């Protein structure tokens, strides 16, 4: 734990208080910010520092850097193993294909991999008129990303904001029910995102976080008492107080 975390622990004991939180990690460009916002909208606490669980995200294929990062996380923490999300699962073309690929990834890693399509969790209502216009047209959205860009013309930005699979699903939903209200369409896309599937594994990872925080804090105090002359007295006083309360 860094010096700022040490100082915070000694000054306000924040390491021992507050609701459980998760740290979202992964390579750049894999959708951590979008997924973090989706979790925050579901009242999941996030942290950029000390956390009670780790959510590791990767997109595309599994790289050696991903495997190394997951191994380091599992080996370097006394807490629960990281929850693993395969983001941008819409690239598989369907949920059936995404689930199958995530299962194969899980076999490789030896731990569950949860596919998510977080872009669908926060579709901007501003995009819905364009989606409705496409649904009313005779457009057949090509599976090829290159061909889809050409077919969409000035609406090509929808691909980056909804993904090809999400856009196809939105168009299909509106063709099946042209009068569907915007709120209902957005709710359906949120359900389709798969983000809710992360909640149970994260809740399981949070289990026992109070005890882990207590143990982590006590270890931290012992380290500070030995290595930090400026705060040694404070650390020893807190340790003695905790020992007295435990006896």
Q: Could you give the topology of this structure?
A:
Layout: H1 3-12, E1 21-26, H2 32-41, E2 45-46, E3 53-58, H3 64-75, E4 83-86, H4 95-109, E5 113-115, H5 128-136, H6 145-152, H7 157-176, H8 182-192, H9 199-206, H10 209-227, H11 232-246
Helix content: 55-70%
Q: In angstroms, what is the radius of gyration?
A: 23 Å
- The 3D shape can be described as elongated
SS element count, helices? 11
As residue ranges, the low-confidence spans are none
Main sheet overview: 5 strands, parallel
Query: How many extended strands?
Result: 5
* Helix-and-strand structural type: alpha/beta
Determine the oligomeric state from the structure: single chain
Q: Determine the strand fraction and express it as a percent band.
A: 5-15%
Element-by-element helix/strand order: HEHEEHEHEHHHHHHH
Average pLDDT, all residues: 86
| Major sheet strand order | 2-1-3-4-5
Q: How far from one another are the termini?
A: 28 Å
What report would you give on this structure?
The protein has 247 residues and is of the alpha/beta class. The protein is built from eleven helices and five strands. A five-stranded parallel sheet has the order 2-1-3-4-5, with helices on both faces. Strand 3, helix 3 and strand 4 form a beta-alpha-beta unit. The longest helix is centred in the C-terminal third of the chain and has 20 residues. It is elongated and about 75 Å long. The relative contact order is 0.14. The model has no long low-confidence stretch (mean pLDDT 86).
